Amino acid sequence: MTCMWLSTVTGGILALFVSLKIFFPYFWEDLVFFLKRKRLKSMIKKRAKNGILSVIDLFMHRVGKIPHKPFLIYEGNVHTYEDVDRRSNRVAQVFLHYGALKKGDTVALLMGNGPDFIHVWFGLAKLGCVVAFLNFNVRSRSLLHCCNICAAKAVVIGEDCLGSIETEFIFHLLENNVNVWVMSTSSPFQHVGTILDKLDKVPDHPVPSHLRAVNNGRCTAMYIFTSGSTGFPKAAIITHLRALSACLAFIQCGATSQDIMYLTLPLYHISASLLGVGGCIELGATCVLKKKFSASQFWNDCRKYNATMFLYIGELCRYLCNQPSKEGDRVHKVRIALGNGIRPAVWKEFLMRFGPIKIFEFYGSTEGNVGFFNYTNKIGAVGRAGIFSKFLHSFELLKYDISKEELMKDKHGRCKKARIGEPGLLVTLVTQEAPFSGYVGNNEASEKKLLHNVFVKGDVYFNTGDLLVMDGNGFLYFTDRVGDTFRWKGENVATVEVAEIIGMMDFIQEVNVYGVNIKNCEGRIGMAAVVLKPDQAFDGERLYKHLVDFLPSYARPRFVRIMDAMQITSTFKHQKMHLVNEGFNPEIISEPLYFLHEPSCSYILLTREIYKNVASGEICL
């Protein structure tokens, strides 16, 4: 009887296992990921009860546990958790003694990668300040706009960024009563404070703990700028809870405190600062910080520092694959790579060449209220909506008319859901558990990201602006961005801003900026169609100099098309689709085409030979 009962139970378990394997092949992966997410969520709540409500609280907790463990390694120099704590204490003391800052003030950071970025960030956090991370590639008006929109009381400029700062920018800040500090012993500008010369004059004792105290995890921790869909950069509000949640990314990849992260992405990005630096704090791991990404030095550095994981954007992996093959390409200890934007072909080539590294692709945005995680390492997918996903987040893919740039609706005015295998606009339900914090100082832009009454009256969804497709197994794949923004070099390029800058030239009458595809390149590269003013000639040298002064390199259009007239829609909007489809092929386009030629510091005539070299990859973009 017992044997019969045991055999029946065993047979039932075996049948269940086989059924799950056939009908739900990813059941166990989905279950493990779901349970892990629930555990991490509970962990954050438990920590909150113990007073850990911010990244700086978490860092102080780690300092107490592992003070002598290496936290940062930069250019061969080791900085322990305690070293960073004491150095950031000194920064906090400098601002406490010399700076007119109070808890809740916003301070903008314009600094390149290095330990002092983190020292200043943590030092200001210890004073209870909100830190705004500025993109050091941004120039003049955009930079000033960033400082104004987040109401910065002070700006800290890294010594490595001083060379690109214009006197006019400093003058405008001082005129608006914004204190300016440089991470240097001396300043080339009048009325600008210095920090490095004061660090030895103040103690490394902690500032009063009540300054950094956080009463609510939904309070603002920092601002991180995103190009958004139009106009100048927008300051996305990152709450303390959101920041702590971002720090958990590498735990979901199976990383441990013994791992060593190699970080080459700019710290002003949420990926580098929170997933990277914050992720190391969460793990109690070590971060090898690089000033700037170098494809030729990447694997040598990984071997030198015994790196076991790294963060990437799609371009980074492609650059590594484009390096000459070496016998020791697989000789390294890297086991985990986390990031977004890697193309399937690059993904496969990367694994073939550099070995069985687990690549965890994720989907998310700086201001978004939900993200996806490819925990099964499915090549090409940005995430997965598994069996238990409805218990983690609520999202939909909506039918979208790309040519009209609008959602498709039924006769009742409600949105239609995209079918399996059909691209759709990703929208995510806004709830108390998944809030949209918006952009500081820009209620109009915040409201534009929200869709109301999508399916029923009163519902609110966040519009990601991205087209995704879901297959029959629940895997999600990124298709494209909608609207005016496109991505290039891992950055969002807002066409309205670029067009406004180009339109400042006195020989240009009208501008239409868009992104075009190039074979084997992630994202789209910038192109501008322009109409010249009557009796005016195109001046490629002047335009080049102007754009270098006003735009970061990734936002400068590589191609310019001269048109007699700009085609517009019935609502007086520039038509882009046909321009995007025609690209920059001189055999298709009869109008003059120009190419941004760095060696000449000018836009030169785009010949068939140049086009051929660009298309073949001989000219690297």
UniProtKB/TrEMBL annotation:
Its EC number is 6.2.1.3. One of its GO terms (cellular component) is plasma membrane. The chain crosses the membrane at residues 12-35. InterPro entries: AMP-bd_C, AMP-bd_C_sf, AMP-binding_CS, AMP-dep_synth/lig_dom, ANL_N_sf. The keyword ATP-binding does not apply. Its main location: membrane. It is found in: Cell membrane. It is a multi-pass membrane protein. It is an enzyme of class 6 (ligase). Residues 61-383 form the AMP-dependent synthetase/ligase domain. Residues 497-573 form the AMP-binding enzyme C-terminal domain. One of its GO terms (molecular function) is long-chain fatty acid transmembrane transporter activity. It holds the Pfam family AMP-binding. SUPFAM superfamilies: Acetyl-CoA synthetase-like. Keywords: Cell membrane, Fatty acid metabolism, Ligase, Lipid metabolism, Lipid transport, Membrane, Nucleotide-binding, Transmembrane, Transmembrane helix, Transport. It catalyses: a long-chain fatty acid + ATP + CoA = a long-chain fatty acyl-CoA + AMP + diphosphate; tetracosanoate + ATP + CoA = tetracosanoyl-CoA + AMP + diphosphate; a very long-chain fatty acid + ATP + CoA = a very long-chain fatty acyl-CoA + AMP + diphosphate. Belongs to the ATP-dependent AMP-binding enzyme family. This is long-chain-fatty-acid--CoA ligase. The lineage of its organism: Eukaryota, Metazoa, Chordata, Craniata, Vertebrata.
